[in-house]
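Could you join me in thinking about how sequence relates to backbone shape in a protein? To get us started, please write out a protein record for me. Would you write everything just below, so we can both look at the same thing?
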Amino acid sequence: MTIKQECIEFLDANFNGLKIRQPLFYNWDIGLRFDLQVGATDTDEYFIECVRRASALFEAAFSQTDEVYLVLLDFKYKRKKIRFPNYCFKQIKNLQKKEVAYSKIKWFYESEDLADIRNQAIVRLSVDRCNYKNILTAISHVDFPPRKPSYGFLSSKQVFFLNINKKIIFHMYDDRGLDIIASDKATLLPIYDTYNDWILDFDRASIDQNMNIAFN
Protein backbone atom coordinates (compact mmCIF):
# COMPACT_ATOMS: atom_id res chain seq x y z
CA MET A 1 0.00 0.00 0.00
CA THR A 2 1.32 3.45 -0.92
CA ILE A 3 1.64 6.36 1.51
CA LYS A 4 -1.20 8.11 -0.30
CA GLN A 5 -3.45 5.06 0.06
CA GLU A 6 -2.57 4.80 3.76
CA CYS A 7 -3.47 8.46 4.27
CA ILE A 8 -6.79 8.03 2.46
CA GLU A 9 -7.61 5.00 4.62
CA PHE A 10 -6.75 6.99 7.75
CA LEU A 11 -9.15 9.76 6.71
CA ASP A 12 -11.86 7.29 5.72
CA ALA A 13 -11.63 5.43 9.04
CA ASN A 14 -11.42 8.45 11.34
CA PHE A 15 -12.79 11.50 9.51
CA ASN A 16 -15.45 10.09 7.20
CA GLY A 17 -13.25 10.65 4.16
CA LEU A 18 -12.67 14.34 4.91
CA LYS A 19 -10.84 16.21 2.17
CA ILE A 20 -7.73 17.92 3.47
CA ARG A 21 -8.12 21.56 2.61
CA GLN A 22 -8.79 24.87 4.31
CA PRO A 23 -10.85 26.09 6.10
CA LEU A 24 -10.36 22.92 8.14
CA PHE A 25 -12.40 24.10 11.15
CA TYR A 26 -15.53 24.71 9.08
CA ASN A 27 -15.34 21.33 7.37
CA TRP A 28 -15.60 19.19 10.52
CA ASP A 29 -17.86 19.24 13.59
CA ILE A 30 -15.24 18.56 16.27
CA GLY A 31 -12.66 21.27 16.22
CA LEU A 32 -10.98 24.30 17.73
CA ARG A 33 -9.91 27.55 16.08
CA PHE A 34 -7.24 29.64 17.75
CA ASP A 35 -6.22 33.29 17.49
CA LEU A 36 -2.47 33.85 17.06
CA GLN A 37 -2.54 37.64 16.76
CA VAL A 38 -1.30 39.84 19.58
CA GLY A 39 -0.39 43.50 19.01
CA ALA A 40 0.69 45.33 15.88
CA THR A 41 1.67 43.17 12.92
CA ASP A 42 4.76 45.20 12.03
CA THR A 43 6.86 44.20 15.04
CA ASP A 44 9.23 41.35 15.83
CA GLU A 45 7.30 40.77 19.05
CA TYR A 46 4.14 40.06 17.05
CA PHE A 47 5.75 37.20 15.12
CA ILE A 48 7.54 35.84 18.20
CA GLU A 49 4.20 35.57 20.02
CA CYS A 50 2.48 34.12 16.95
CA VAL A 51 5.03 31.30 16.68
CA ARG A 52 5.07 30.80 20.45
CA ARG A 53 1.34 30.19 20.47
CA ALA A 54 1.40 28.00 17.37
CA SER A 55 4.26 25.91 18.80
CA ALA A 56 2.55 25.50 22.17
CA LEU A 57 -0.64 24.30 20.48
CA PHE A 58 1.30 21.92 18.24
CA GLU A 59 3.07 20.45 21.27
CA ALA A 60 -0.28 20.06 23.04
CA ALA A 61 -1.60 18.04 20.09
CA PHE A 62 1.55 16.02 19.26
CA SER A 63 4.19 14.16 21.20
CA GLN A 64 7.68 13.59 19.84
CA THR A 65 7.00 9.90 19.23
CA ASP A 66 3.68 10.35 17.42
CA GLU A 67 3.49 9.18 13.82
CA VAL A 68 2.11 11.78 11.42
CA TYR A 69 1.30 12.37 7.80
CA LEU A 70 2.67 15.73 6.69
CA VAL A 71 0.53 16.85 3.76
CA LEU A 72 1.84 19.69 1.61
CA LEU A 73 -0.49 21.27 -0.97
CA ASP A 74 0.27 23.90 -3.57
CA PHE A 75 -1.70 25.49 -6.40
CA LYS A 76 -0.74 23.96 -9.73
CA TYR A 77 0.09 26.55 -12.36
CA LYS A 78 1.29 25.34 -15.76
CA ARG A 79 4.25 23.00 -15.05
CA LYS A 80 4.68 24.05 -11.45
CA LYS A 81 5.49 21.14 -9.10
CA ILE A 82 6.30 20.52 -5.45
CA ARG A 83 10.02 19.95 -5.62
CA PHE A 84 11.95 17.76 -3.23
CA PRO A 85 14.34 20.49 -1.98
CA ASN A 86 11.51 22.78 -0.85
CA TYR A 87 11.75 24.58 2.50
CA CYS A 88 9.24 22.33 4.27
CA PHE A 89 11.02 19.11 3.35
CA LYS A 90 14.36 20.58 4.39
CA GLN A 91 12.99 20.65 7.94
CA ILE A 92 12.71 16.83 8.04
CA LYS A 93 15.76 14.92 9.23
CA ASN A 94 17.27 12.53 6.70
CA LEU A 95 14.29 12.69 4.37
CA GLN A 96 14.68 10.38 1.37
CA LYS A 97 12.98 10.91 -1.99
CA LYS A 98 11.31 7.50 -1.71
CA GLU A 99 9.49 8.68 1.44
CA VAL A 100 7.50 11.31 -0.47
CA ALA A 101 4.30 10.46 -2.34
CA TYR A 102 3.37 13.01 -5.03
CA SER A 103 0.00 13.37 -6.71
CA LYS A 104 -2.29 15.87 -8.41
CA ILE A 105 -5.81 16.70 -7.25
CA LYS A 106 -8.28 18.03 -9.82
CA TRP A 107 -11.33 20.11 -8.88
CA PHE A 108 -9.83 20.64 -5.44
CA TYR A 109 -12.73 22.80 -4.27
CA GLU A 110 -15.23 20.89 -6.39
CA SER A 111 -15.64 23.78 -8.79
CA GLU A 112 -16.06 23.54 -12.55
CA ASP A 113 -12.89 25.57 -13.06
CA LEU A 114 -10.37 23.47 -14.98
CA ALA A 115 -7.59 25.40 -13.23
CA ASP A 116 -8.81 24.23 -9.80
CA ILE A 117 -5.90 21.83 -9.40
CA ARG A 118 -3.45 21.27 -6.56
CA ASN A 119 -0.15 19.47 -6.33
CA GLN A 120 0.05 17.27 -3.24
CA ALA A 121 2.97 15.65 -1.44
CA ILE A 122 2.62 13.34 1.57
CA VAL A 123 5.33 12.19 3.97
CA ARG A 124 4.87 9.75 6.86
CA LEU A 125 7.27 10.43 9.73
CA SER A 126 7.63 10.67 13.49
CA VAL A 127 7.36 14.15 14.99
CA ASP A 128 10.91 14.03 16.34
CA ARG A 129 12.24 14.12 12.76
CA CYS A 130 10.52 17.41 11.98
CA ASN A 131 11.56 20.96 12.88
CA TYR A 132 7.94 22.06 13.11
CA LYS A 133 8.85 25.43 14.65
CA ASN A 134 10.67 26.45 11.48
CA ILE A 135 7.68 25.39 9.38
CA LEU A 136 5.27 27.34 11.61
CA THR A 137 7.57 30.37 11.43
CA ALA A 138 7.57 30.24 7.62
CA ILE A 139 3.78 30.06 7.61
CA SER A 140 3.58 33.10 9.90
CA HIS A 141 5.66 35.10 7.42
CA VAL A 142 3.76 34.15 4.28
CA ASP A 143 2.13 37.57 3.82
CA PHE A 144 5.09 39.58 5.13
CA PRO A 145 8.06 39.70 2.80
CA PRO A 146 10.98 40.07 3.27
CA ARG A 147 10.71 38.28 6.65
CA LYS A 148 12.49 34.96 6.61
CA PRO A 149 12.01 32.06 6.54
CA SER A 150 9.04 32.27 4.20
CA TYR A 151 7.37 30.44 1.35
CA GLY A 152 7.08 33.73 -0.49
CA PHE A 153 4.53 36.51 -0.79
CA LEU A 154 0.92 35.28 -0.86
CA SER A 155 2.05 31.69 -1.16
CA SER A 156 -0.62 29.18 -2.10
CA LYS A 157 1.01 26.43 -0.06
CA GLN A 158 -0.97 24.71 2.69
CA VAL A 159 0.64 22.44 5.31
CA PHE A 160 -1.34 19.92 7.34
CA PHE A 161 -0.15 17.58 10.10
CA LEU A 162 -2.28 14.44 10.57
CA ASN A 163 -1.62 12.73 13.90
CA ILE A 164 -2.06 9.01 13.26
CA ASN A 165 -1.89 8.05 16.95
CA LYS A 166 -4.26 10.67 18.37
CA LYS A 167 -6.56 11.09 15.33
CA ILE A 168 -5.93 14.84 15.20
CA ILE A 169 -5.40 17.18 12.24
CA PHE A 170 -3.49 20.45 12.72
CA HIS A 171 -3.44 23.34 10.25
CA MET A 172 -1.95 26.80 10.71
CA TYR A 173 -3.31 28.86 7.84
CA ASP A 174 -1.18 32.00 8.37
CA ASP A 175 -0.17 34.45 11.11
CA ARG A 176 -3.82 35.00 12.06
CA GLY A 177 -4.68 31.58 13.39
CA LEU A 178 -4.81 27.80 13.25
CA ASP A 179 -7.29 24.95 13.39
CA ILE A 180 -7.15 21.66 15.29
CA ILE A 181 -9.79 19.00 14.62
CA ALA A 182 -10.16 15.48 16.00
CA SER A 183 -12.24 12.36 15.54
CA ASP A 184 -13.23 12.46 19.23
CA LYS A 185 -14.03 15.61 21.21
CA ALA A 186 -12.46 14.09 24.35
CA THR A 187 -9.09 14.39 22.63
CA LEU A 188 -9.51 18.14 22.31
CA LEU A 189 -10.90 18.94 25.75
CA PRO A 190 -7.47 19.25 27.47
CA ILE A 191 -6.31 21.63 24.72
CA TYR A 192 -9.53 23.62 25.01
CA ASP A 193 -9.18 23.90 28.78
CA THR A 194 -5.49 24.83 28.79
CA TYR A 195 -5.57 27.34 25.94
CA ASN A 196 -9.11 28.66 26.34
CA ASP A 197 -7.96 32.28 26.30
CA TRP A 198 -6.56 31.79 22.80
CA ILE A 199 -9.80 30.51 21.26
CA LEU A 200 -10.90 32.81 18.45
CA ASP A 201 -13.81 34.77 19.90
CA PHE A 202 -15.64 34.88 16.57
CA ASP A 203 -16.07 31.07 16.69
CA ARG A 204 -16.23 30.59 20.46
CA ALA A 205 -20.00 30.05 20.62
CA SER A 206 -19.98 27.34 17.97
CA ILE A 207 -16.95 25.67 19.56
CA ASP A 208 -18.74 25.56 22.92
CA GLN A 209 -21.83 24.10 21.30
CA ASN A 210 -20.01 21.49 19.25
CA MET A 211 -18.03 20.31 22.24
CA ASN A 212 -21.10 20.35 24.51
CA ILE A 213 -19.55 22.77 26.99
CA ALA A 214 -22.15 24.64 29.06
CA PHE A 215 -22.33 28.37 28.74
CA ASN A 216 -21.64 30.37 31.87
About this structure: The radius of gyration is 17 Å. Residues 140 and 175 are 4 Å apart (CA to CA). The longest strand covers residues 117-126.
